């Protein structure tokens, strides 16, 4: 597929009112009192097309309802600003589902393709138009449904929509494929850890300890015997420059900076806030801020063993009762563990290292693809770039 890179007016595109060509909250019918598939706001990730999870809930009252091919558009702050918009493709044929009351449901008419609706909802200018017209109290502002009666968009012919959607869909499909591989790599690594060090399947001889029956070769130890929890360093948003290295807070990557504090690979543990106890692995260099701990393994060759070990510890249940929940590093390091021999720890780390390396490569590729998609999307959907087959 070739593109004409020069900007050109979309003179053959028809200008239409948004709500005339994209239906807003035109719900399918659904029987009340029955258990139905439900999608909550937490089941959609920021700037991710795919719905991540569903649950079953009894349908009791008038909630947003939708089918495959619809788009879920977060209408409340800060979810809209953060990019929560998803395309529905996870339901059975003919199935209708319910969703959070904070979704607007966008559906295609005969003039537009379903995925063209989704990518139109991702347009920065459309989102900003909606954000500026939010109503309600500070912190709980919402987009009124009739906002989309007051914005016009240019609609290309269906044949050109297919080209645009095909280009963007190929990028998102590749990202989703990479995500599945990343998830598989993680699952394999954690399964091996569980097989070796939790169910003790390779071992035949056991001994009775305060930690229960453990293999003869193991010992009862504490987390502090294999690693230490070190404080991250403050780096305010105003101090951050550039985009070379990830900045980690308790809830994962919170930004980027031109400098790193810690050489990767490394482990980050949430220290303060609602996400205290969260565990992240960063394969490259990074900056952990002061709401986190970074982990110093006693032996660098055992880093991946330490990472998977920490994931089995319920740190989120070990927090203090202060106004700001948090994890005390002494409490964390004092947690008892069944410690395998050093040789087994090294062998495990060496075994799973390729899986983590592959995941890192795929995440880097996804970042590149996402950047490409987000750069070209508004130009494709406004006709500034036209595609030829």
From TrEMBL:
Domain spans labelled Type I restriction modification DNA specificity: 11-182, 215-344
Molecular functions per Gene Ontology: DNA binding
Classification via CDD domains: RMtype1_S_EcoAO83I-TRD1-CR1_like, RMtype1_S_EcoEI-TRD1-CR1_like
A Gene Ontology biological process term: DNA restriction-modification system
Pfam families, per database record: Methylase_S
Family annotation (Gene3D superfamilies): DNA methylase specificity domains (3.90.220.20)
Transmembrane is among the record's keywords: no
UniProt KW DNA-binding keyword: yes
TM segment ranges: none
Keywords in alphabetical order: DNA-binding, Restriction system
Family membership: Belongs to the type-I restriction system S methylase family.
Protein name from the UniProt record: Restriction modification system DNA specificity domain-containing protein
